[in-house]
Design brief:
Number of strands: 22
Number of helices: 17
Distance between the termini: 33 Å
Largest sheet: 7 strands, mixed
Helix content: 25-40%
Mean pLDDT: 90
Length: about 550
């Protein structure tokens, strides 16, 4: 998803389940000695059922609770526990499986899907989920008047992009409810990862009568869901309380009664809450937490197909010059930042497609290993490029402002970069911090020179990490475009020759490396903590924490 920082695999997904050994006790009967009568068992009062409840912390409140508008990682974590679409990733994490869909047929062209909905699929208020709900929702995402940032996810649909750009009508979009349980979907071209795409929040259904209510996402009374949980209580900036959805299609498999999501902005405060048993699952890891728990059964680390990077505003001096952008990217030490500042096991990013995505030809290898590094760090070369751009030793360079969110980890990384650029290039960089909602407005308004950003992909193909830099998606952050880059990705949507596709991806990455409209920093790895009696928590390949299969022993 377009995962703004705040924020399938085996070779397809990387999902890990919290499966520390479960203890079970069994009682064996005793046999009375021969000739003696065994005493009748004493009647015992039944113990009241204990509520299955997990308290989980997020750093901040979700930015968007409408799945058809969502492009945020933090929001996706909550939405993935509230909604389901046609497909979901299975409990083992190895493949997409039907959720609200029962089955599908694919025609000989590889572009026309006919989905049959499960007739037992219901909304949280008990009404049936219909094919019309999906048609309405998908067209809502693409509707130019709605202006959803998630529209590009549905450009795979026939005329999806054309409708979003007002070049076609809604009736021409390749999604049609044939009847209440039959959904016909036509794609622009064969898309081998389309079932994985269906697991993205942008493809989730919303119901027309609910959406048309003013502020429908702000009240549990108007908020209808299709997933394992329903929204029971909403306290802004404090907590969201989710309850088991009795109308969920697989409600019999959901063991939790309550999932309480509390908002703790400080990672230090979150660690204290975890240590004091105020929360049971924590994934806002601190260096202290790593040291304390890394070698215990409570610590888990899962690769994620995402990357932290920094936007360069290519519409403003000095970063309208590719030489300056490359100089800044080459003049830092990524390994030092990861080891000393982030203190994680993550890998430095010398490309734009993360580890965890398989190569399309050598399927036993990862794309990143096959493609190799796209650039290197070299302070001497960085100084040379800066001088060629007219700023020898940083002299005469315009004032530079780097913006980051107000979290301590973001500020620590920013200060490390600031120090490296001063030492290696002779350039002073100012740092400004903003709260989350204001931060993204600053980026959209272009009020920055450098900005912290991030992206996590959705499916096992390099496209998921490269299409965000196409002209149509880069206009509100890096403000960079390259016709050849756009052409290469567009061609890859239309062809199935994997050798040619991998070749095109490598060429696209080379363009990014040569022009450097963004500075890759690190490929993500998700570390989280779960109490020993908490089982079945899943951390999926795009960083979502899933509680559908979780329980407390």
């Amino acid at each position: 998803m377009k995962k703004k920082m705040g924020l399938v695999l085996a070779a397809l997904l990387a999902i890990t389940s919290v499966t520390a050994g479960c203890s079970s006790s069994s009682s064996s009967g005793t046999t009375a000695p021969q000739g003696q009568q065994q005493a009748a068992p004493q009647a015992t009062a039944e113990k009241p059922a204990v509520e299955q409840k997990i308290i989980y912390a997020l750093s901040k409140e979700p930015e968007e609770m409408d799945p058809t508008l969502n492009v945020y990682a933090r929001s996706s974590i909550v939405l993935q526990n509230l909604f389901r679409g046609l497909y979901k990733i299975d409990e083992s994490g190895k493949k997409p499986v039907p959720s609200l869909a029962e089955s599908y047929e694919l025609d000989s062209t590889g572009t026309k899907y006919t989905f049959k909905l499960n007739k037992n699929a219901k909304w949280s208020d008990g009404k049936p989920v219909t094919a019309q709900d999906f048609e309405y929702s998908w067209k809502r995402v693409l509707n130019p008047d709605v202006a959803s940032g998630a529209a590009f996810y549905l450009y795979y649909l026939k005329n999806g992009k054309a409708y979003n750009e007002k070049k076609a009508s809604a009736d021409e979009v390749g999604v049609k409810a044939v009847d209440e349980s039959t959904l016909e979907v036509t794609l622009e071209s064969p898309t081998p990862y389309f079932l994985e795409l269906l697991c993205v929040t942008a493809y989730y259904p919303v119901r027309k009568d609910a959406v048309e209510k003013e502020g429908w996402t702000k009240s549990p009374e108007t908020y209808l869901t299709t997933g394992p949980f329903v929204l029971s209580e909403l306290k802004p900036k404090e907590k969201y309380v989710l309850k088991k959805n009795p109308n969920y299609l697989e409600a019999d498999k959901v063991k939790l009664d309550t999932l309480e999501i509390v908002f703790i902005e400080s990672s230090e405060a979150e660690l204290a809450a975890y240590t004091n048993d105020e929360i049971q699952v924590s994934d806002n890891m601190t260096p202290e937490g790593m040291k304390r728990f890394e070698n215990t059964p409570e610590f888990f680390s899962v690769p994620r197909i995402g990357m932290q990077y920094f936007d360069f505003n290519a519409s403003k001096k000095p970063f309208d010059d590719a030489k300056v952008r490359k100089a800044f990217s080459m003049a830092i030490n990524r390994e030092q930042i990861i080891k000393s500042i982030v203190q994680s096991v993550e890998k430095p990013a010398f490309g734009f497609v993360p580890y965890g995505i398989p190569d399309g030809v050598q399927k036993d290898k990862e794309y990143r290993d096959v493609a190799g590094n796209m650039f290197t760090e070299n302070v001497d070369e960085a100084k040379k490029l800066l001088a060629e751009a007219g700023y020898p030793d940083g002299q005469g360079i315009p004032e530079i402002t780097m913006i980051v969110m107000a979290s301590q980890s973001d500020k620590d990384i920013a200060q490390a970069l600031q120090s490296m650029w001063k030492q290696n290039l002779g350039v002073n960089v100012n740092i400004e911090t903003f709260e989350s909602k204001v931060y993204w407005d600053e980026i959209e308004n272009g009020s920055f020179n450098i900005a912290s950003d991030g992206w996590t992909g959705d499916y096992p193909d390099p496209m998921t990490n490269l299409d965000i830099f196409e002209s149509v998606n880069a206009s509100d952050d890096i403000r960079w475009s390259n016709p050849e880059y756009d052409r290469l990705l567009d061609e890859n949507r239309k062809i199935s020759d994997q050798a040619k596709r991998m070749e095109n991806y490598a060429k696209a990455e080379k363009i990014l490396a040569d022009e450097m409209p963004l500075m890759p920093l690190r490929f993500y790895e998700d570390q989280f903590l779960a109490k020993p009696n908490v089982k079945g928590v899943l951390k999926n390949y795009i960083g979502h924490t899933i509680f559908e299969y979780a329980h407390v022993e």
